[in-house]
Amino acid sequence: RDYVHELENLFLLVGFVSEREQVDKLWNGLNESIQRELWKKELTPTTSTWSEVREAAEIIEIADKVG
Asked: Is the dihedral angle over the CA atoms 9, 11, 16, 20 positive or is it negative?
């Protein structure tokens, strides 16, 4: 979650950043275990929206902390 908030703040500072670029930065900044789980959920860095990736990554992160 912290990483998502940092990225969102950076995007605001920089100005216009396309959603595709935002998703790419988010995806590639996540650790490999979260990326792997996103792929399993059939999310991809080229077709998924920011909201889809963010929400799924947050749930995966929470699940990892619980388990």
From this structure: negative
**Cβ–Cβ < 8 Å for 23, 53:** yes
Encoded tokens for 37: 């789980």
| Total-model pTM | 0.84
pLDDT tens column, 32-51: 999 999 999 999 999 999 99
DSSP character at residue 46: T
* 53, two tokens: 């990736």
Q: Count the Cβ atoms, other than its own, within 10 Å of residue 63.
A: 10
Give the whole-angstrom CA distance, residue 3 versus residue 28: 11
